[in-house]
């Protein structure tokens, strides 16, 4: 049986606060044992004009710290997408990683 769980880790609206993270956990459950756990973690960061390089570096640091601290054995994929305002200007970035724990 396949089950999905959602975990809300925190909310961020500035550079110094914890980023907004959502974890999707897919578990293949057999005989009350968890096997083959695959998780998807979503990070979000706001982007401001003339600060983009610094904000992307900060996002990289948060993702790398997460990978190191959470016993990530295998990263399956990493994807980025941008969010825009009503005029089409980029105002944020969403990074999604799919991984397996050790």
Q: Would you give an account of this structure?
A:
There is one protein chain. The protein is of the alpha+beta class and 102 residues long. The longest helix is centred in the middle third of the chain and has 18 residues. 18% of the residues lie in helices and 58% in strands. It is elongated and about 45 Å long.
What descriptors fit this protein?
102 residues; alpha+beta; Phosphorylase Kinase, domain 1; 5 strands
Summarize the structure.
The protein is built from one helix and five strands, in the order E-E-E-H-E-E.
Secondary structure topology:
Elements: E1 2-10, E2 20-30, E3 33-46, H1 52-69, E4 72-84, E5 90-101
Antiparallel strand pairs: 1-2, 2-3, 3-5, 4-5
């Amino acid at each position: 049986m396949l089950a999905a769980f959602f975990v809300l880790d925190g909310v961020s609206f500035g550079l110094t606060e914890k980023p907004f993270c959502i974890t999707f956990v897919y578990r293949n459950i057999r005989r009350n044992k968890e096997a083959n756990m695959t998780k998807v973690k979503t990070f979000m960061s706001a982007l401001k004009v003339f600060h983009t390089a610094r904000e992307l570096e900060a996002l990289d640091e948060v993702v790398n710290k997460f990978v190191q601290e959470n016993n990530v054995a295998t990263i399956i994929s990493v994807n980025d997408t941008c969010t825009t305002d009503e005029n089409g200007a980029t105002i944020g970035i969403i990074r999604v990683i799919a991984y397996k724990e050790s």
